[in-house]
Amino acid sequence: MACSKYTLTNTGSTIVNFNYRRCDDSMWEYQVQLNPGQTKNAWVINGTLDLADVYLPYVSVINQGIFPPTNPTPTPTASLTPTPTPSITPSETPTNTPTPSVTASETPTNTPTQTQTPTNTQTPTNTQTQTQTQTQTQTQTSSQTPTDTPSSTSTPTPTRSKVAFTVYSGTTHDEACGRYNPTVTVYGNNSQFDLSTQFSNISTGNATIDMTGFIQNGGYVVQLNSNGNTIGYGGLCLTLTPTPTMTPTMTKTPTNTPSPTPTFGYYTYILGTGSTANLACIDFSGAPNTIYGTVAGGIGPNIAEFLYYNSSLTTPVMNGFYSNGTAVFEVTGGSGQITAVDPSGCS
Fold it and tell me: Which residue among 145, 182, 222, 269 has the highest number of C-beta atoms inside a 10 angstrom radius?
């Protein structure tokens, strides 16, 4: 698959996002943030760079050319020419000059593989006498050209399947939480609603309508811009907080019997911690901590889940920020509960 190196510079005053398919492992990179004044290089499979139209006036995109650069060096076969020249000149000296004598000896004594490359340089000089032998060698030299043709057919990958979620929408946080409008179906780019960074009204491709507003699923609300990208942290509906706070108390019953089946009583997470989101991201890459979560909400961490310092789930974590290297989870309330999530907080 053909690749190119692109340099993108944010010349505006707002954060922009772009998507592309990486050249090294063909994986998609979604919602790569580009801060005002920031420049990033991206090695992109041709045809997969995706930048929303609304960002085009504020982003300078420069194609640095094909990557990796091509270095055509078809010279290794030149070492074969010294061997046929001394043995051929005695037989062809009466009729031809030294240059045509090389091609005359190729047909009776040498295999086509050893003397194919020299014919490229002798074709203009031997067209008068050795026309029959040259027509055979020219047809074989074309074997070098097919290497360039398949590279242009490597871009049929624009389709991206997403996960469907049934949500309540609204123009405000309270309207979405209050379920004032009928439910609608949106499609996120992650199997977890709280870890999705982009939503669309269609199952493949970008949104075809203005997605500005708030959407709520399972008591968790996120704000979207016109393109369906999440804005900052999502959070729990205040009116629904009594419901999720009751569910963790039920998970305390397995903590009385952790010795027979401890693997079923909790989930283990490796998370960075800190008083700010940035410190949590840094801590994850330097000295992450082992944190334990309840099993009621499934593997996570998830919004409304409770986190603990011990596997018996009796010592809740302190208020602050926790990160898995990509997303940032905020814990508030003093009981270890995750109350807000930024799915791309470490970008």
Answer: 222
